[in-house]
Known about the structure:
By secondary structure, the protein is of the alpha+beta class. About 45% of the residues lie in helices and about 25% in strands. It is built from 15 helices and 19 strands. The strands form four sheets. The protein has an eight-stranded mixed sheet, with no helix packed on it. A four-stranded antiparallel sheet has the order 6-7-3-19, with no helix packed on it. β15 and β16 form a beta hairpin. α3 packs antiparallel against α4 and α9 packs across α10 (about 435-485).
Amino acid sequence: MKKPLLAALILFLLLPILSARETFTVDGYHVDVSVDDEGRSTFNEFLDLDFTSPSHGMIRDIQYRFKPYPLRTVTAEISNIKTNVDALLSYNGDYISLRLGDPDEYVFGPVYYHIMYDYLLEDDGNRDYDEWYVNLLSPAWNTDVRSFSFSVTFPYEVDPERIWVTYGEYGSTAPLEHSISSDGKTVSGIVYGLGPYSAVTLRAEFDEGYFTAREAKPDYSGLFKILYLVIAAGALFFIYYSYSTLGRDKEIISPVRFSPPEGLSSLDVGYIIDNTVTFDKDILSMFFYFADKGYMKIEERGKDDILFSKIKDVEEDRPPYERMLFSLLFQNSDSVDIKELARRNFAQSAEAKIAPEIERSYEREHPLFEKKSIQRASLIRAIGGFASVLFSVFASISNMGELTLFLLFPSLISFAVLSLIGHRYFSNNGVRNSIKALQIILLAIMTGALFCAVSYLLAISSMGMAGSLILSFFNAALIFSSSFFSFAVNKRSEYADKMLSEILGYREFLEKVELEQLKVLIEEDPGFYYHNLSYAVALNLEENYSRKFESIKFSSPSWYVTSDYVGSYAMWYLFSSRWRRVYSMERSLIEPPPTGGFKGGSGSHSGFSGFSGGGFSGGGGRSW
């Protein structure tokens, strides 16, 4: 009982494969090709088919468009098509399809077809040798070919050492015995018993100029390479000149001072120091600033809750971004807790709204960079974007299309990444950790090198090794300079220099003040710690600053309500840790994490034999 079931199962599984076979076999297939001195090939195909079931006839697919390289398309001109029976021609993707037969009649058993056409492949673009590389039998025939023969006649004598014929399944390099006529022009051969998807391919190499009548496409690639190099060199010089004349800031002299610049909030100080606004540093610091200025109080109401209560509104004479932040915090209410802020997505919302507002405000009232340097930086970044497009076009000039887009994509990605890295590096206004600065520079160099390698590998099929290497290097250098160093051209304004000098002096004080000096300052002003806490947070010094006060006893501020006494560091630690824990926990309840995972003679030649199915022409046949 088991054996019949097993046999039935095997038959069932094999049925789709068996049924996929064509409804005919090829009893005899002869291809006669005559190649002229232009490289145009006249094909005569003689087919003896044996239809095993009634069909209207055969569809002969002839390929005319190829991709010898992943990003290069080669097209053939097919003309003068003739057949011995009625045929309907149509285009089907990369193929011309000839539907042979009558839709009102059926054929069965032996049927003879004769197909004739001219085939001209575009210039191979190789300057070292000429080539004729054709699939005489395409690997697309899904049926048995009992006998296949061919005869290819070239316009002039050929070198037997530079003729290769291969056969078998696609990719096979098995040589097929063939003969060359006494005049040395005709290559012929025969093979029997080929299975489905078998191919016979002939590859012939000749000295450059063998096809004397062939009109090669004008080659402007060398001219375009030179033009791009001239443009790139000029752009690089312009970037260097711009930096040396506009981008060199004055040296900042920052005498130590015990207080922040007059009239600046912690948000201002945080923005001026690095030209960015982040929630964890700049916006969070304003909680303490608002409280210290008497606008609100902070109350611990338990392990997982902190309440913020409004005391009064921010005055109208304060900058609009401060008033906007305060309004976003309370939203027409007098109090709000952390959980409510999390549900409102306050952190992301505040950062998204305050950052552009403070940037616009400073551009109007106190520009941080000279207008001419900003315009020059924008021009340099535009040059970088233009260079990406220009390189993509020039590097693919002989094969415009997909290659152009594939070259443009990494250029633009690299430009964007290097711009972000450059902004990160040059936004710290001299306050740089040497190790982090080195890491940023190394990351920029690695990004530029990676982009250069990708561009080289993509362009090599169009320009060759030397051309693609030179252009890729210059393009990488230009994109690196125009993106990374465009930020170095931004020259600080006099206002920015003055404020930065005061901020850096104040920062040095917060970072290096000694304990004894702090005691004196506390005696003079018991609220000294709290008056400076928001600025320490904005300058990313809160932990170091707060620890300096651990051994000093002083009273808690009136705006910070807690059930127990807490020291300076403890107060900051409890507030920041509870904020992050409760805010993150509440957000996770609202936004659950996503699931899921994630290429003779005295002339040059290659010596490459080719392989079955690897040539041009070809296409299969099928019933209909």
